[in-house]
Amino acid sequence: MNFDTAEVIDKKVIFEQIETALKKENFTVVNKDETRPWGGFFVIDEDQAAVFAAKFFPHLKMDAIKITNKLSPKILVVAPQKRLSWQYHFRRAEIWKILTGIVGVKTSTTDEEGEIQQLTPGTFIQMDKGERHRLIGLDSWGIIAEIWQHTDPENPSDEDDIVRLQDDFGR
């Protein structure tokens, strides 16, 4: 999945391009959300988690990343000049790989936002459970492969497992 997102402005077009690329790679999209004010995401079928991890995180061994029996593979799409909330999670760690675009990421072990890091395509970043983090769109669309490391096998993480410390959209 590699395309020039610098020239694409329309959200609908970028989502169509990503969906086409995922289908070409034989990934099954089980959920898509284009309504997020910062962009959106694609959820990939959990049965394809090992294939997803092998494709986007080939340097990681499955037994090292699969703490429980779920990985919740996703593709995040962050719009230019938009920021996800400054957040953390109680029941998951996250692993990201930047696929397209240069994005900003802030991380911290405290509630105070860290310095922005500019991450380029191919860059890998891992956030521990409880680590504060924020994804930031810079000059172009950012496309990020994400897997969740669920830390509680009895209560896997979900979209409700987000503690927002700051949010540009008042959520």
UniProtKB/TrEMBL annotation:
Mannose-6-phosphate isomerase type II C-terminal domain boundaries: 48-167
Pfam family, one: MannoseP_isomer
A biological process from GO: polysaccharide metabolic process
InterPro entries: Man6P_isomerase-2_C, RmlC-like_jellyroll, RmlC_Cupin_sf
Keywords on record: Isomerase
Molecular function as annotated in GO: isomerase activity; nucleotidyltransferase activity
Name of the protein in its database record: Phosphomannose isomerase
UniProt keyword Phosphoprotein, yes or no: no
